Amino acid sequence: MKIDLIVLSFILVLIPSLITYKLQIGKEILKNSIRALIQLTILGFVLGALFKIKNPILYIPIILFMLFYSAFIAKKRTNYSFKVAFLSISLSTIIILIILITFHIISLKPNEFIPIAGMIIGNSLNTYTLTIERLKREIELQKELIEAFVAIGANYQDALKIMQKEAIKAALIPVNNMLQTIGVVAIPGITTGMLLAGASPLTAISYQIVIIYMLVSINLFSAMFGSYFFISGKIR
Predict the structure, then answer these.
(1) Cβ atoms within 10 Å of 160's Cβ, excluding its own
(2) Burial class (CB within 10 angstroms; exposed 0-12, middle 13-18, buried 19+) of 152
(3) Cα–Cα distance for residue pair 142/130, rounded to 1 Å
C-alpha cells in the first residue's frame, strides 16, 4: 500500500473541504472522504483474504451480504420496500452473472468473480434508486393524468405503465450518456487503471468494452424489475 501516494493525493480533498467549510455548506466532503479511505483500506485487506478462496460455494455468503447491504441502502434512499429492492437487485445480478459465466466472459476465479459481482450490484443499486425515485415523483405529479385515464375506462395498471416507461427512460440516461461520450470525452476507470498497471491499450480497451456492455444490461434489468415490482405493489 503506497501511503505516501495517498497522503499526497489527500490535498485534492483538503482544498474542496476548506472551501466548503469557508462557504458554510457543511463538512460532508472531508468526513465522507475519510470514511471512503477507511472503507477502501479495509476492502484491500478483505480482498487479499477473499482472493485466496478456492471453493466457489464460499462466494455465496459474500454475494448475499452485498445484496442485503445494497437493499438496505436502497430502502433508506427511496423510503420504500426492502423486499422490492432486494428482489430487483438480486434478480438483475443473477441474470448478468449467469450470462457472464455461461459464455466464459469471466471465470469463477475470486479475483474476477467477486469484483465483477460487486460492480454489478453497485450499479444495480444506483439504477434501482433512480427508477423508484422517478416513479414516485411521476405518480405524484401526474395524479390528474392517472385519474383522467381511469375516468375514460382505462385501468389503473395501464395508467401506471406510462409512468413506468418514463422512469425506465430516465434511469437509463446516465448509461446512454456514458455510451455516447466514452472514448471521446473520457477515458473510463477500468482502462485508466489497467494502463497505469502497464497493460497494453488494446487489452485494456477489450476489458472495458465487456464492462460497458455489462453495465447496459444491469441498468436495464434493474430499472425494469424495480419499476415492475413497484407498480405491482401499488396495484395490490
Answers:
(1) 23
(2) exposed
(3) 18
Q: Which of 229, 236, 218, 222 is nearest to 84 (CA)?
A: 229
- Nearest 5°: CA angle at 129, between 124 and 130? 100
88 near 222, Cβ under 8 Å? yes
pTM: 0.83
Residues 6 or more apart in contact with residue 41 via CB below 8 angstroms: 1
Grid cell in block for residue 159: 395508467
Give the span between the Cα atoms of 62 and 88, in whole angstroms: 18
Percent of the chain with pLDDT over 70: 95
Q: Quick check: 21 and 27 in contact, CB under 8 A?
A: yes
Grid coordinates representing 91 are 434478480
67-71 contacts, C-beta under 8 A, 24 or more apart: 67/93, 67/121, 70/121, 70/122, 70/124, 70/125
pLDDT of residue 66: 95
For residue 33, what are the contacts with CB-CB under 8 A and spacing of at least 6?
Answer: 10, 13, 17
Counting Cβ atoms within 10 Å, is residue 24 exposed (0-12), middle (13-18) or buried (19+)?
exposed
Cell readout for 104 is 466464459
Closest CA to 179 of 213, 207, 219: 213
- What pLDDT, in 10s, does the model give residues 98-109? 999 999 988 999
Output the CA–CA distances (angstroms, integers) from residue 93 to 159, 180, 208, 232, in the order listed: 29, 24, 19, 21
